[in-house]
Amino acid sequence: MLSAAKRSAVLLACLAAASIAAAQSYPNRPIRVIVPQPPGGGFDLVARTLAEPLARVMSNPVIVENRPGAGMLVGTEAAAKADPDGYTLLLGAKPNLAFNSGLYDRLPYDPKDFAPVGLATYNTYTLVARKELPFESLKELVEYARANPGKLNVASAGNGTGQHIIAAVTFHLAGVQITHVPYKGAGPAYQDLIPGRVDLFFDNSATAQPHIDGGRVKPIAVSSPERLSVLPNVPTVREQGVDFDNQTWIGFFVRRETPEPVLARLRADFARVMAMPEVGTILEKKGYAVIRLSPKEAEDLVARDIDKWTQLIRAAGIHAAN
């Protein structure tokens, strides 16, 4: 009869063998990418841009599945509860992995339990306003808000989204109170912004740009450290007197318990996709800055931002109810 120690050793050996066997046959069924926002948003654009070439590289279907709701909690929780087998990826970004850590008292997932497959882009935000408002800059907006307390409101794509947090931090640092109006995605927000039922929207630059180009809204400021090439005449938030900038990283993540050989395969194939010139061109045309980091660099960046933004959001008193 085997001793307890020997039984444990045999069990571990069997588990290791099963993990290796699974990795060797991986992938042998469709991989899904959970996007915790509705179709057509900035994060969805990145996921769909990457999914098709990743499917080609892996010779395996890669399917984008939108799971919006509750400030990106619904989709992120679904990914956190999926089997850690490499068949469920999460479209992860600062909002669902860093911002939510400070925004909610309790999260249904631990952001640190996700490992980056790879980061693909930096996304910036552009503050846009309905065209009828009597200001053209952030400085003028702040002066108007101080002279008309409680009059302005700002849309977001939902509680806890990047649009919510970037606007809240910017206006907190500017010393003005502007009412937050959450929507279920950017599309519904624009449906009210364009006809003037809401005043402002600090949206993803990529999804804001078509509305700016079409003359439906006017740009006020950008969140990036430097001006955007597509909006060279629009000053940054920092240029306009508010000591703040932000770029949001976006990438694919898996549960940290994913077998190492599977994670290594995903990371290698993701890097191959990011090395394709046509992928970079598509992302840049959509308004994203392409980034190429090693797994260690990505891990370090994500960990730093989780800690940084948890403290910043709590210090600003920004909160969302579960």
Q: What do you see in this structure?
A:
- By secondary structure, this protein is α/β, with parallel strands linked by helices.
- The protein has two domains: 30-122 and 248-315, D-Maltodextrin-Binding Protein, domain 2 (3-Layer(aba) Sandwich); 125-240, Periplasmic binding protein-like II (D-Maltodextrin-Binding Protein, domain 2, 3-Layer(aba) Sandwich).
- Helix content is 44%, strand content 18%.
- The protein contains eleven helices and eleven strands.
- The chain has helices at 4-25, 42-58, 73-81, 94-103, 138-147, 162-174, 186-193, 205-213, 260-274, 277-285, 295-315, and strands spanning 31-35, 62-66, 88-93, 114-123, 125-129, 153-156, 179-182, 200-204, 218-222, 248-255, 289-290.
- Strands 2-1-3-10-4-11 form a six-stranded mixed β-sheet, sandwiched between helices. Strands 7-6-8-5-9 form a five-stranded mixed β-sheet.
- It is globular.
- The mean pLDDT is 91.
End-to-end distance, in Å?
52 Å
**CATH architecture annotation of the largest domain:** 3-Layer(aba) Sandwich
Main sheet record: 6 strands, mixed
The fraction of residues assigned to DSSP E strands is 15-25%
Tally of discrete structural domains: 2
SSE sequence, one letter per element: HEHEHEHEEHEHEHEHEEHHEH
Backbone CA Rg:
21 Å
